Amino acid sequence: MARSLLRQLEQIRRSNTYDDAIANVNTSTVAEPTTISGYLEEDLNNLRTLILQMKSTVSGSNWYDAMGTYFDPTSTTSGNANTKDLNFANIQGHTTDAKTVIIAVEDDSSGSGYTVSGTSTGILMPLTTVYATPTDRRGLPIFASTANTGSYWDEGGLDRVCRIDVLDMATDAEFQTNAGDVVYAKFHDGADFSGTGTGTDVYARFYAGGSPVDLSTISGGAPSSVYFVYPQRKVMNDVEEWEWLRTDFVSSWEGDVELVEDIQNLWSFTGSGDNISSPTWTNTTSNYPLSTNPGDLETGIDLINTSIGDRTYTEDNYIDDGESISDSLDKLDQALKDVADDVTAGVGEKYVESVASEITANTVHGLPFSITYTPHSAAGREGKNMDVYVDGQLLAADTGSNGANADRDYGETTTSGVTFRFTLQAGRNITYVVRQ
Asked: In degrees rounded to 5, what are phi and psi of residue 203?
């Protein structure tokens, strides 16, 4: 019997109903029916439901709806619009869990640093992070060059990914050997250096110029404590947002953590702070160098520099051009003291005595009014510290110690008495001018 169209439709039924929400489609009984009562419409509806599940779980979606689009960072002319078709061809090769990234980690031993000396060859660091291996590259890239070589992963033998920056805790800077080589470190298995190993500790061994070193040849002497900025490899979709710091190390640019610390140190040093656009000066009244309240440090320093001047002097009698302010003030202080002493020595105190009874020659006469002075017997300077007048006539002091030569008008016998070489009658006047 010849087959007709009607007979063909009876044999292969078309889908009269379209259903993409089949209940229990994820069970084998529904998704793969084996009963003879099953037919093509059911199979197609099961497939529709499974396709919808793969494409979308949004309520109201249909199995035949487009897959949608996602944001393409290489085509941003539409702003933040999702412009790239979401399909298997576009997804292939772009999954984040298939890629790793090396991030920078700072370790300063909770702010205390790791103690070192000239004999230090490295530091055994307590780290619970596991080592990267040939089968699992996540963790710490380890330079495998010691007893257990071959156990760990350093990017296929390229040990440059294992380089660790070593910084002086006191200066936040790298340091060099006397030969000019920067000291760095590489991670080695902690078990090879009296430790436990992966997941417990790791050994940061010091290097310079490509070879292991101790810190005995550090330029300027070994630091007392150090800290590290080291690499850690993570799968990209395991990296937290806050971990996306700059991944270049100190040798090129410091990580954001170091930059923030340095900025805070600058704030502390300059007296500035967050959102402060200009300095706050204490003394801004008239005649202060910063009375104009300048808005930046450069202008402020220039004003102070101008107020001090160029330290160039016209005569240079006591101070010299270009010397420090402290040295100039010290020289002026000494010179002024010398002048003051000279003035004091040249201006005496005057006393007048009326002789009440005769003063016999060559006998010590005590000075009145509790006068004291300093006898002076240097040749040519006799009587330097006290002038003696009798009835207005200036007398000359004897030569020799305490006037011992008795060869002039009077001798400076003691600090409170003189010896006249002639007799003074009652009623005469003696004037004393004491300088010191």
From this structure: -105, 120
Q: What's 343's DSSP letter?
A: H
Hey, which bits of 177-253 come out as E strands?
184-189, 201-208, 211-212, 225-235
Please tell me the distance from the alpha carbon of residue 149 to that of residue 143, in angstroms, as a whole number.
9
In eight-state DSSP terms, residue 315 is S
DSSP character string of 37-67: T--HHHHHHHHHHHHHHHH--STT--TTS--
Strand partners, 206: 185
**Is the separation of the CB atoms in 395 and 410 below 8 Å?**
yes
Q: What is the pLDDT of residue 100?
A: 78
Q: What is the pTM of this model?
A: 0.46
Backbone angles phi, psi at 352, to 5 degrees: -125, 125
220: alpha, beta or left, given left = phi > 0 and alpha = psi -120 to 50?
A: left
The whole-number mean pLDDT for each consecutive block of 10 residues of the chain, a chain of 436 residues, reads 52 75 91 73 90 81 87 72 84 77 89 95 95 82 67 67 90 92 93 92 94 94 95 84 59 53 78 76 87 87 90 92 92 90 78 95 95 93 94 95 93 96 95 91
Alpha helices in 218-375 (DSSP H): 256-270, 297-308, 325-346
Scanning 74-179, the segments in alpha helix (DSSP H) are 88-91
Q: What are phi and psi of 288, to 5 degrees?
A: -75, 145
Tell me what pLDDT residue 14 has.
66
Cα end-to-end distance, the chain, whole Å:
158
| pLDDT at residue 42, as a whole number | 86
Listed residue (393, 390, 408) closest to 352, CA to CA: 390
